[in-house]
Amino acid sequence: MADSDNNTTLSSVTRRMLLTGTIAATATWPFDYGADGAEAPADNAVCDPALDLWRQWLAAHNETQRLWKIQVSLESRMVAAVGFPQVE
Prior knowledge:
It is built from 2 helices and no strands. The protein is mainly alpha-helical. The chain has a domain at 45-83. The longest helix has 34 residues, at 49-82. The termini are far apart. The relative contact order is 0.05. The mean pLDDT is 78.
């Protein structure tokens, strides 16, 4: 008796074909290496809301990095002065 559940056809789009098509499509997109695209439309009234959110995220990320460096410095100074805590 033949099992009819095994008669499904395979997809004609494979992972390799999808990646090849994606690479071919993105290769045609213009990409300006010299311009700072994130900063250029800052004074433009018609601005992408996602770009504004990205700028806010970047500012928060930079602040987080700055504070992290201060924390690492303080922890290093504390360990140098006091040493690691030990249970006796």
